Amino acid sequence: MITKVVHGWRVGGLIAYLMGPGRAQEHVRPRVVASWDGRDAAWQPPQLGDGESGRDLGPLIRALRAPAVAAGLPEHDDEGKRGYVWHCSARVAGGDRVLSDAEWAEVARELLDGAGVAARDDAGGPRWVAIRHADDHIHIAVVLVRQDTCRRIWPRRDYPRLREAAQRIERRLGLTVTASADGTAARAPSRGELEKARRQGREPARVELARAVRTAAVASSDIAGFVSALEGAGYLVELRRGPSGDPLGYKVARRGDVSAAGGVVFYSGSKLAPDLSLPRLVRGWEEAAQGSDAAVPVDAARRRVEGARAAVGAARRGHGVEDADGIAHATRDVLTAMAGWSGELGGAAEAFDRAARPPRTAVAAPGPSGAGLRRVARQLVRRRGMLGVSDEPGAAMVALAVAMAALLREIAAWQRERDREHQAAAARAAADVVGRWAAAKSTGPGTRDVLVDHGSAARRPRIDRPVQRRSAQPRD
Known about the structure:
The protein is an alpha+beta fold. It contains 17 helices and 8 strands. β6 (235-241) and β7 form a beta hairpin. α11 (324-338) packs antiparallel against α12 (343-352).
């Protein structure tokens, strides 16, 4: 269950939108399924006439606004402060069953109670209403003002608490399990970005820019090369500098991507993905600068990948000397470099994205395996035109893919044993894609014996339990 919260000032405008037909007539039979006082469906606005869209919203809106009116709160932005209208949307996964109105009503109460916004037994708490106009989601509108004291409410840690409540609901109702708020997910395009991309007939700028930034970072060894690579690919780049002139950050834009006011739409690296901020990129470049690889890039990459797999396996058995999280993050660079060989491998790099980042509470420590992976990734990108890449890859490329699939499975096992199910799933998905690509390409000239010769690398990792394993029980 995915939840999203936004704040505003006009509860009347929000109710009018939720109970209306929607921007594209997508709201089907909008109805109230739950409310603050338990009357629930009794708050359903009556229809005016025969039209489906004409409803008398006045009584519901006035009732919701009453505490805010008594408190003297405005219906407009108050000097840049956060609005007191708390709007939460909760959506189940596409493959989940359709919940009944009664189930959604209970979901709304459980979310509000779990998030600390409106406790179940608090008669003087804020007024709220849950509205459903589709099979797979509801909207909850809350006026963050207490009824008994007319004092404004400022929920504490409502976002992470809401995520925890959603996970409890998933387990109770047998819904698709979603990830914890662990800081590993890249920011998804907003609804406005998706609609803009749809109008333009291209993918969202945020998605394209994240891929371009990552590729430029892998191919570069410093900030100057990074900026040059992005500009050479046709993107706009601006650096943010401190008083000393040192670069502190950057922002990137797609040419021709402008806002309604005509300004260029820039994205900072940290807004594209948690690991694309300038300090993180600089750390990776410094790590890759340690040591050298003189062999042919593909051969060197294969050896580095096989060594990284051994290091992760040792870490799983409890006697490794390198941080597997650091290796997983550097593995993303090699996959990014391999993405230039085919769109299928590009999909593997995208699938692995979340598995490359450790949770918010963990820090990926650098090590020789990670440094070697970053270094050979840069060599692969820089010398791609000299490698004879064609529709029929050579045996060395297929061997690298076989070794990479094995490393990805080892990383998946590492993540799974630490109860990072979504990171483990991402690594397994990437391993499956790379493995299928290697199998399909192994029938070309000179590649038939690759899967046999590197069979030890293709075997799935042994499922060991780490020496210390934290409890899998959810933290409520």
